[in-house]
Amino acid sequence: MTAMTTTRAATRRTTAPVREREKPRDWVGIGLWLALGVTALIWFVPMLLMFLTSVKSKTDINELPMWGLPTDWAWGNYASAVEIGNLWVTAGNSALIALIKVPLGLAIAAAAAFALSRIRFRGARILLALIAIGSMIPVQIGLGPLFSTMLSAHLLDSRLGLVLPYLAFGIPYQIFVLYGFFRSVPEELEESARIDGSSTFRIFWQIILPLAKPALAALFVLDFVATWNEYAMATTLLISQDNYTIPLAVQSFSTQWGTDYGPLNAFIFMSAIPVLLVYLLFQRYFVQGAFAGAVKG
Amino acid sequence: MTTTDARTGARGRSTRTVPPHRRFRLALPYLAPALVLYAVFLVYPMIDAVRLSFFEWSGFRIEKPEFVGLDNYVRLFTSDPVFWTALRNSVIWVIASLLVPTVIALLLALGLNRRMLGRNLMRAVFYIPAVFASITVAAMWRWIYNPTLGFVNQLLHAVGLGDLAQSWLGDPQFALASIFVANIWQAVGFSMVLFLAGLQSVPLELVEAAKLDGAGAWQRFRNVTVPALRPTTVVVVILTIINALKVFDLVVGLTGGGPAQSTQVLALWSYTQSFTNHEYGMGGAVATVLLLVTLALVIPYMAWSMRGDES
């Protein structure tokens, strides 16, 4: 990245006069920019409409076009949405699940990826392949049996019970990505640590794991977003409203109170705030890290 | 997966001097939590779904599952009126997902790989829908498609095309396509980010060299960018196929499979048979078909992905 920027800067300095002359003729660049800008605007419209609806009164929604500004800004919709959608309880459930599931899942996946990539026992690759396939199987295939299993284990309709299948469906992909990272750590590093008398656990904890920080950060963000947004398993395994997670609350809000468009759209907005925050704070990890690791090349 | 071969050159590695059976014993504590969770909550439900497909069971615990052999499959293929629609819709969804959002994502990535004003803002606008929950996207788009107050019909009326206004989700002719439009909006960002990451691996020296040799933009794209993007493209394609086979939340949130089952897909039909119709056996049979389709597509990819990583 740095190397690229330096090259670019150098090129620009040497070719500056040429560029000046070429500039007015860069119609391709301008056309491209316009095309991308228009597309971006189209992509932005649904979000804008949701926001405008979320601050309109019932009358405004019925009488104004959807893109019209509200005559009076009905910020009260947000307060009613919090109340109708039981926002604090459901957001609390989602946060509880995510804050247990995401770090625990990463730790379990990292340990397994370490064993598969660094201890190199017989059959490690076949085991990795069998695990990786699990990351690609649609969860809906197992929902029926999962329901029965959780019922027999008395874990149905329990937030902590939901964490177990979440872990099982989250770790395969993480193992797959971390395996690639751990494999690329030079053997010599591990070697010299072992000569210094480090145990296998110390090698895992103090050498391999810190080197995989970018991948771990990226996986953390991806997994947080995926966990916060998960719907299919939650709707199967949670029954009582008090255990609902955010996606279940959105769905029940829109089926039960679907005509209360103002509060509904306010609720939709608020439900996405945590993932938007995580995205904005850790944006750079999306492009770097795990994706580079997931892409063979 | 980037795996620089670090093993060549290293000699007498300590883990290597440990005999194989002891090495597995060493690995077991690290593997055990993952393997137990994976076996109990992922592999077992999958196998059990296949097992259930040979039984007739309402799912109620007071009733014992009754073994019926291949009856569920015979019913599925000959007399289930929805299965073929669901299979067809799933296939359409896979093909359309490979064509439309993937191509848009590639074009956006190529465009946004250039330095230009507002590049990061545009990237964010395209990516943000991908972090919304699908069920939330469904709620958003149901509002956009609302027959009277929704954006689409209001816009059509405003520009004088009021005749084209439809009940987008209520008409079997348009419902699936309408859901797919919402899917395009959501799916483009993720593939775009993958393509952008892939474009980082395009060797700049080669681009410069090709420029000096007088290669035009198209030739540079064809001979430098395309080969460099090949591994990324394989990943995008497999992820797109998998996500297309999994599509569930959007359909549940927008139409629930209706009107008249016209937007039914395999993942949802399996769920509906088990939980709504209390036909666990039929649900299992649909799940088995979905599992076989998935494995047929995923196993070749895994073979490719593991290649070149020999011990």
From TrEMBL, chain A:
Transmembrane annotation, as ranges: 27-52, 95-116, 123-143, 163-182, 203-228, 264-282
Gene3D superfamilies for the chain: MetI-like (1.10.3720.10)
Family that this chain belongs to: Belongs to the binding-protein-dependent transport system permease family.
Signal peptide, first to last residue: none
Compositionally biased spans, kind Low complexity: 1-16
Name of the featured protein: Carbohydrate ABC transporter permease
Pfam entry (one): BPD_transp_1
Subcellular location: Cell membrane
Keywords: Cell membrane, Membrane, Transmembrane, Transmembrane helix, Transport
Membrane topology: Multi-pass membrane protein
Occurrences of domain ABC transmembrane type-1 (ranges): 91-282
Region (Disordered): 1-20
Automatic annotation (TrEMBL), chain B:
The keyword Disulfide bond belongs to this UniProt entry's keyword annotation: no
Major subcellular location class: membrane
Highest taxon, organism lineage: Bacteria
TM region(s), chain numbering: 26-47, 91-112, 124-144, 174-197, 228-248, 280-304
Domain (ABC transmembrane type-1): residue spans on this chain: 87-303
Subcellular location(s) of the protein: Cell membrane
Alphabetical UniProt keywords: Cell membrane, Membrane, Transmembrane, Transmembrane helix, Transport
Membrane-related topology note: Multi-pass membrane protein
UniProt KW Cell membrane keyword: yes
CDD domains named in the record: TM_PBP2
Signal peptide, first to last residue: none
Family per record: Belongs to the binding-protein-dependent transport system permease family.
Protein name (record): Sugar ABC transporter permease
Source species: Brachybacterium kimchii
